Amino acid sequence: MFKIILSLAGMQFLQAAVQVFKMKFVAMLLGPAGLGVISLINQFVQLVVQVSTLALPWAATRFMAVANSRGRDFFEREIKVFFRGIFYLSSLGMAFAALLIWKYDYFLASDFQTYRFLALISVSMVVPLALKGFLLSVFTTAGKYRLSAVIMFWNAALGAGAVLAGAYLAGLQGFFGAQAIVEYATLFYCLVKMVNELGVRPFSGQVKVWEGLKSLEGSFKLVFYGSILYFMSPSALLAVRFSLLKAGGEQLVGLYQAVHGLVLYIAFAFSQATSLYLDPILKSEMPLEEKLALTGQYLRKVCLTVSSLMILVTVFPELFLQLLYSKAFIAGAGFLFAFMLIEALNLVAGVYVGLLVGQGWYNTH
Predict the structure, then answer these.
(1) What is the torsional sign of CA 270, 271, 272, 273?
(2) Mean pLDDT, to the nearest integer, of 154-173?
(3) All residues at 6 or more sequence positions from 239 whose CB lies less than 8 Å from its CB, including other chains
(4) pLDDT tens digit string along 254-284?
(5) Are 105 and 116 in contact (CB under 8 A)?
(6) Average pLDDT along the chain
(7) Is the pLDDT of residue 362 over 60?
(8) Please, what is the end-to-end C-alpha distance for the chain in angstroms?
């Protein structure tokens, strides 16, 4: 198991390296202030995605893993139910967010109104971001781990090239415009691969989403708990960015994003490997004893690897911030250890949440 996870983590490290390369040059082109604007708007979009979809992409892995073990017909039915549910909800969320930005932006922070047009461009990505994440989980549940990893890598690689070209030619508008184009192209490719690899056409046939979700035992409880979880984290992160924007402007938000981003690059590879391989197993109908053995084996080795990397970065924070960004970001080095500790705990907690969901904890608590 660990060899598979390690190979997937290796591909995710390549993806993280691409992201580092992208943000290094974005930081050089746009500076801390530009990075702060990108961080603020992307976090707002992430909040819209997670709130509007009501945690359906996250909950879907539990029920698709069970359906896949029962046969192709069950699996295909669940895919269509969740796909259309996510599509309808994310479309409503995108429309509501666009209306909020365009007509009622006084409900948002006053400084956010300056970036109305950029936010509108970015909000157009809500649907492809929501569906892309769901489709990647479909591939992993079907056992096509490498396909998911490869799609994620090329999404990052092509996205890096596109946004750098856009930022160079048109600044922040070019950055967000290129980002939106890449996300729609990735969604189209995922849909093509789902038809070719799995033979599932998500828009074909009549599907009753509400009835389909009601037929899944505990689905609404899982969606309820997941919605709370999905709302608290991104809303807190967005509130932090708005507070920093008000206190010190875009440059302070950029410093925060640089420090937090550096830590996320380290945790990213193994968190993605977990979601690509371990999570579908933990949410399947495998006996609890086997799940506990896999979880222990995974955490022992991953914690050792991640801790080694985090210690190295914590000892030399100024060096890594300068290498990954520029000298302008060194001022944030003092906060690096706290972010390292938080993300390490999140990585471990995420594994145990998957285990608890796989055991149907939401039906008993």
Answers:
(1) positive
(2) 92
(3) none
(4) 888 888 887 877 777 677 767 767 777 777 7
(5) yes
(6) 82
(7) no
(8) 31
What count of residues does the chain have? 365
The model's pLDDT over 54-69, given as tens digits with 9 standing for 90+, comes to 888 877 887 887 788 7
243 within 8 A of 83, measured Cβ to Cβ: no
Q: What is the largest CA-CA distance in the chain?
A: 58
* Number of C-beta neighbours around residue 304 at 10 A: 9
One-letter amino acid identity for 307? S
> How many other CB atoms sit within 10 Å of the CB of residue 330?
17
Q: pLDDT tens digit string along 303-341?
A: 888 788 888 888 888 888 887 777 778 887 888 888 888
Cα–Cα distance measured from residue 57 to residue 130, given in angstroms and rounded to the nearest whole number: 7
Asked whether 309 and 10 are in contact (CB, 8 A), the reply is no
> Which amino acid, 358?
G
Q: At what angle do helices 72-103 and 2-52 cross, to 10 degrees?
A: 50
**Which residue bears the tokens 């707002």?**
44
Structure-block tokens of residue 90: 């994310």
- Residue with tokens 């943000």, as numbered in its chain: 23
Of the candidates 203, 205, 199, 95, which has an alpha carbon nearest to the alpha carbon of residue 138? 199
Q: What is the DSSP string of 56-95?
A: HHHHHHHHHHHHHHH-HHHHHHHHHHHHHHHHHHHHHHHH
pLDDT at 365 over 50: no
Q: Which two tokens stand for residue 193?
A: 């691969």
Q: How many angstroms separate the CA atoms of 296 and 238, rounded? A: 34
Quickly count: other Cβ atoms within 10 Å of residue 303's Cβ.
15
